[in-house]
Amino acid sequence: MDRIQYCKFDPTGNITALVETAVDIAEQPEVAARIMEREPDVEQVGFITYGKDKVPEEGAAAISLRMAGGEFCGNATMCAAALFALHRGLQSGAVPVKVSGASAPLTVSLEQQAAFSYSAAVSMPPAIRIGTVDLQHSGAAGVHESGSADGISAMISLPVVEMEGISHIIIEPDSGFFGVKDDKALAESMVRHWCGVLGADCLGMMFLDEGIEIRPMIPLVYVPGADTMFWENSCASGSAAAGMYLAARAGSSVDITFEEPAGRLRVESDPASGLTVLHGSAILLGSTIFAIQ
Predict the structure, then answer these.
(1) Tens-digit pLDDT profile for residues 179-190
(2) What contacts 19, CB < 8 A, 6 or more positions away?
(3) Residue ranges per structural domain of the chain
């Protein structure tokens, strides 16, 4: 393998590279790191495999996606569906995508908005568990009820949404840890530690602010398999998790939009049926081939 071809997508600012060259799983983290060195705005890298049949059988995936760390990613799933649609010249339709971290293919509904742009809606896998977890941070600085660092460790009960391939901790303003969003080094230390404590494949911290139909949210995501840590411009799985959490807490369906650093993601979640649909977009920015040694 001496040449790598990848496409670069913008799904609500969560810039994603999708590699179309076949790469052994053991080599994927290194290839991803090389791409992110070349493309400083890329926050995550996935690896694509196409189905042999142009029209997949019912229930089969049209395209397969494996993230560099083996995690699940909703934004990359929408990008993979858009890439398949662009290759097939599809203006609209449903594309089944097999993605790492999810046991069954996910259906992505697409509508072309411009030559290289799609609006997308993906039916997300249901949460494995929505509950709370008692977490502690013991480091150079702790956090107490106001969320300020004071040099001592602290423990607090926080909501957690466990999903296939990724888990998300939801942190709201009334939490003792909400102020940690203003101390990036401390927040990164905490999410790295908590990922190990929870045994999660990947862990996000979603700092969810107040709102009614629109709620501001800042996502931090750690992927140990790829050794990446990003304050993401948007997080699809984190948005879905926040929507599931809010629906479970309300005991009724919700339709809510999350205002994230680079734009908005909308989530519909019904706790009775377990159905959660994420609405976003995928824009192709370009395709690149580079030599790798």
Answers:
(1) 999 999 999 999
(2) 4, 5, 6, 31, 32, 35, 45, 46, 47, 48
(3) 3-124+280-291, 129-275
Token representation of residue 41: 């705005």
User: Mind listing the pLDDT tens digit for each residue in 143-161?
Assistant: 444 444 444 466 788 999 9
Residue keyed to tokens 């959490």: 245
* CATH tag, 3-124+280-291: 3.10.310.10
Alpha helices in the chain (DSSP H): 28-38, 74-88, 184-198, 236-250
Residue 27, SS3 per DSSP: helix
Enclosing H/E stretch for 273: none
C-alpha 282/C-alpha 76 separation (Å) is 9
Counting every residue, how long is the chain? Answer: 293
As its CATH architecture, domain 129-275 has: Roll (3.10)
Question: Helix, strand or coil for residue 35?
Answer: helix
